[in-house]
């Protein structure tokens, strides 16, 4: 699912180019994918658009950063659960826009599978209610998925590359195994794709590095066009992908549809602080984003940063600098796409600690030596020399000095490789950029006829020319240009240390047409720019190089441009710009807060006639059946698929009742609290490793209303599900002592359930069943003037005084100037670990964070730019649920920024529907005294 590579290795012979027989725009052979006949190395970035909520224009910000940092393709997951809250929902073009940004290719995964660490594995909650297996040849399941996939496929078809759109590949299923029934189901998907007009290649992602060959076109039976595998080496590089691939899919290029070294963090997995992902050095996602509302699976918390190259706050990290260096090389190393693996091992170098893979293009003679530590997780400093085979014979390189690998270091050494277009040609000068860690030495040999060079201004550079080979030796540090004239040819060798190379960009100069900004397909022209944090676009207009992008500090911008360019603009300004002053972030401890109690349902006289009656007696969740009780109390069967649930069980007490036993299934890090007739009985605090608990709640005669209706209330937090067949709710219940039984169960989740949620913009997964959520108190413009003054903060004497829930509201303004990007996060200071409470964070109506004080780890919560208002008033709300009778409060709450960036991106406030737009669809609000 994450970093996707296609076309890395191939065979040594010329093979027939394959197509879908429906279009020749995208073809393939054992070497690589080809687009419009041009071989392309597919370097794809994994992005889940729904995890950047609010304003879809922010997707463009991410796509531009992805492209500017070396990627040429995006893997775009579509989430069935967010689009189909009920069986009859229709996906609209506005909900799913694969053509939003047309300057990068798109690899679509329809996400009709249990994956993506999202609630239900991407299945809508109602899908689990059907009889039989999911992801199988099950008529009930086919009836469920066909409307969704039909709607999505029609949108995909309109946006294929054949129609001028960006989509080049579509994935049919994910991590799935062939069998008699599975094959029928898989063929049904393929048939539907084709019936709805999809003509680009259909792919499949197999597990275990792609060694099994499920649905490979080179095996009999049901098959896709291009077979892919996935692997999670967790830092230790594997060397088996090529041989495994050849064994099962020899007519396809090697495709790794999921390839990553990062790891998912779960509840309580790291100490409190940040998002928990700050120390993850290897990326899993290119951009992970935020698990807003109830979109996460139970093992995941709010942040889905995943150690991504572009952080959850949209800030590109040093990992993206690394990807830019690799991507800039891979996109112009055309010889690599026709190369085959000759051999690999530790026998290429003078040190057995070093592993080398030799790839060679047998048509052009170009060779690529990939060098790394044999144990790729090694942090040792190792020196060696490398045996290579070239057109000039067998050589031991470097001829002077040593090859140095320092820790998690690797190098690509090329031989018989054309220097032209290694990065770019500007006017008649071929520019080649070389880099290595500072302090190391480099050696480069170039075939020339009669080179002339002046090294008088070059530091620590020496050269020698013999037998048509110019050899340069140099020390790496900073940057320096070595100019070489060879007859009528001009070369510019730019030597950079790696840190300096991070600030260099090879920006594509766009041409006209639908694909004018795709490198190699629409334009082969680039310009070299150094200095900026991000170069979004580059264009030459007459004598002016027009650049747009972002700066993260005072920066000198340099560019190597054609001779006709005499002027340079940056974001429509000259290079000398003055930053606007940034106002200080608001101080939340000084803000005026409003508070109301948010659990009126524990009152035995609360009118629950509007709640859903839970009276079903059968279930299709045969894998996790009810354990005790007369009725099935599974929330999904009543149309509630996420968030807080409120159960009210009624019984007539005889006075002999001594306890109530409940088994509640909430998922990992779930929990619940119980009351009888308004009296707090206790809580199941939840655990990061336990999905359900069985608890006994002792009763005394003083809490019972003998001969009258007694109300047992459970407030449950549901942490979504791992897969479609995993219920949430009360799996078992019983009254101990006497003969009384529960005569009625009532249930309330989010207002209107999934089918009739009043907020169709944010969707049914944004809210839960808390009273404040149901009445819309989390939304802007909600009338809170009758609420009490009160704060969630401990230092102001706020919070909640006993067990239960209080809901807090405040407003703030940022006033961010035009041309500035200022990512903002909300920081919660943890209270003592013995304080058992949970908080939910709402920004302008969106639930953007879940905090559990006794589990953690997350304390920093991104306020997504598509939701945060820059120059309008923001509404911040917090629900505070104490699971102990002693109450709880927040030790601290503040805003922090991840940096100030001068940006060309057109940020603008995006005003979503507020309370006034939904008031008629919600209960009339009533103020409840704070608990």
Automatic annotation (TrEMBL):
Its EC number is 3.2.1.23. Keywords: Glycoprotein, Glycosidase, Hydrolase, Signal. SUPFAM superfamilies: (Trans)glycosidases, Beta-galactosidase LacA, domain 3, Galactose-binding domain-like, Glycosyl hydrolase domain. One of its GO terms (molecular function) is beta-galactosidase activity. It comes from the Eukaryota. Residues 335-504 form the Beta-galactosidase domain. Gene3D superfamilies: Beta-galactosidase, domain 2, Beta-galactosidase, domain 3, Galactose-binding domain-like, Glycosidases. The keyword Methyltransferase does not apply. One of its GO terms (biological process) is carbohydrate metabolic process. Residues 1-19 form the signal peptide. It catalyses: Hydrolysis of terminal non-reducing beta-D-galactose residues in beta-D-galactosides. Belongs to the glycosyl hydrolase 35 family. This is Beta-galactosidase. It comes from Gymnopilus junonius.
């Amino acid at each position: 699912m994450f970093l996707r590579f296609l076309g890395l290795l191939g065979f040594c012979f010329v093979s027939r180019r394959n197509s879908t027989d429906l279009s020749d725009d995208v073809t393939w052979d054992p070497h690589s994918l080809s687009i419009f006949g041009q071989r392309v190395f597919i370097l794809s970035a994994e992005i889940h658009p729904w995890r950047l909520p609010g304003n879809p224009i922010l997707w463009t910000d991410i796509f531009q950063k992805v492209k500017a940092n070396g990627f040429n393709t995006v893997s775009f997951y579509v989430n069935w659960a967010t689009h189909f809250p009920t069986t009859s929902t229709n996906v609209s073009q506005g909900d799913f826009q694969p053509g939003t940004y047309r300057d990068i290719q798109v690899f679509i995964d329809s996400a009709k599978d249990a994956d993506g660490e999202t609630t239900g594995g991407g299945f809508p909650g109602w899908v689990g209610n059907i009889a039989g297996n999911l992801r199988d040849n099950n008529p009930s399941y086919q009836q469920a998925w066909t409307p969704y996939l039909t709607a999505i496929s029609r949108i995909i078809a309109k946006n294929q590359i054949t129609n001028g759109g960006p989509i080049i590949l579509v994935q049919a299923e994910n991590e799935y195994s062939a069998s008699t029934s599975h094959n029928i189901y898989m063929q049904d998907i393929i048939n539907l794709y084709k019936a709805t007009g999809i003509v680009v290649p259909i792919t499949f992602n197999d597990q275990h590095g792609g060694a099994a060959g499920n649905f490979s076109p080179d095996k009999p039976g049901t098959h896709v066009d291009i077979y892919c595998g996935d692997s999670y080496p967790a830092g230790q590089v594997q060397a088996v992908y090529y041989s495994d691939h050849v064994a099962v899919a020899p007519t396809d290029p090697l495709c790794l549809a999921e390839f990553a070294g990062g790891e998912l963090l779960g509840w309580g997995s790291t100490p409190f602080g940040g998002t928990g992902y700050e120390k993850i050095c290897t990326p899993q996602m290119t951009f992970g984003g935020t698990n807003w509302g109830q979109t996460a699976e139970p093992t995941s918390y709010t942040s889905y940063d995943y150690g991504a190259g572009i952080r959850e706050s949209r800030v590109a990290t040093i990992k993206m600098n690394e990807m830019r260096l690799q991507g800039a090389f891979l996109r112009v190393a055309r010889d690599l796409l026709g190369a085959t693996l000759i051999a690999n091992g530790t026998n290429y170098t003078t040190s057995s600690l070093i592993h080398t893979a030799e790839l060679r293009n047998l048509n052009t003679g170009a060779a690529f030596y990939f060098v790394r530590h044999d144990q790729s997780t090694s942090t040792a400093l190792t020196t060696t020399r490398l045996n290579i085979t070239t057109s000039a014979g067998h050589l031991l390189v470097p001829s002077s000095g040593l090859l140095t690998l320092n820790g998690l270091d690797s190098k690509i050494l090329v031989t018989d490789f054309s220097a032209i277009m290694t990065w770019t040609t500007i006017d008649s000068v071929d520019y080649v950029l070389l880099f290595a860690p500072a302090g190391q030495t480099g050696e480069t040999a170039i075939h020339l006829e009669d080179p002339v060079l002046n090294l008088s201004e070059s530091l620590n550079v020496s050269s020698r020319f013999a037998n048509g080979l110019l050899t340069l030796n140099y020390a790496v540090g900073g940057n320096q240009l070595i100019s070489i004239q060879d007859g009528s040819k001009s070369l510019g060798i730019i030597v950079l240390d790696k840190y300096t190379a991070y600030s260099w960009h090879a920006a594509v100069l766009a041409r006209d047409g639908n694909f004018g900004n795709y490198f190699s397909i629409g334009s082969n022209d680039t310009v070299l720019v150094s200095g900026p944090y991000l170069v979004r676009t580059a264009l030459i207009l007459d004598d002016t190089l027009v650049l747009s992008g972002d700066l993260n500090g005072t920066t000198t911008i340099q560019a190597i441009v054609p001779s006709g360019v005499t002027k340079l603009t940056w974001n429509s300004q000259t290079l000398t710009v003055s930053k606007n002053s940034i106002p200080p972030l608001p101080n939340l401890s000084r803000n005026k807060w409003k508070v109301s109690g948010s659990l009126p349902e524990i009152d035995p006289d609360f009118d629950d006639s509007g709640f859903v009656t839970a009276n079903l007696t059968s279930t299709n969740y045969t894998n996790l059946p009810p354990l005790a009780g007369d009725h099935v109390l599974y929330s999904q069967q009543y149309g509630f698929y996420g968030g807080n649930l409120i159960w009210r069980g009624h019984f007539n007490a005889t006075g002999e009742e001594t306890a109530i036993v409940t088994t509640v299934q909430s998922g990992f890090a779930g929990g619940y609290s119980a009351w009888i007739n308004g009296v707090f009985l206790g809580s199941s605090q939840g655990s990061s490793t336990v999905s359900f608990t069985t608890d006994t709640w002792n009763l005394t005669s003083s809490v019972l209303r003998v001969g009258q209706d007694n109300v047992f209330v459970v407030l449950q937090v549901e942490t979504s599900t791992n897969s479609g067949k995993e219920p949430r709710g009360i799996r078992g219940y019983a009254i101990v002592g006497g003969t009384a039984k529960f005569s009625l169960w009532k249930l309330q989740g989010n207002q209107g359930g999934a089918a009739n949620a009043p907020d169709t913009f944010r969707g049914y997964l944004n809210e839960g069943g808390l009273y404040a959520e149901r009445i819309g108190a989390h939304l802007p413009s909600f009338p809170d003037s009758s609420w009490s003054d009160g704060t969630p903060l401990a230092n102001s004497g706020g919070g909640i005084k006993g067990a239960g829930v209080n809901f807090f509201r405040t407003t703030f303004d940022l006033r961010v100037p035009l041309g500035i990007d200022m990512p903002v996060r909300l920081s919660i200071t943890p209270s003592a670990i013995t304080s058992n409470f949970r908080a939910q964070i709402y920004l302008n109506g969106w639930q953007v964070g879940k905090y559990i004080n006794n589990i953690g780890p997350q304390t920093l919560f991104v306020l997504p730019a598509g939701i945060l208002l820059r120059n309008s008033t923001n509404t911040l709300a917090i629900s505070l649920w104490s699971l102990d009778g002693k109450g709880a409060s927040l030790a601290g709450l503040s805003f922090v920024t991840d940096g100030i960036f001068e940006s060309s991106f057109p940020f603008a406030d995006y005003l979503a529907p507020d309370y006034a737009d939904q008031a008629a669809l919600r209960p009339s609000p009533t103020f409840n005294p704070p608990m």
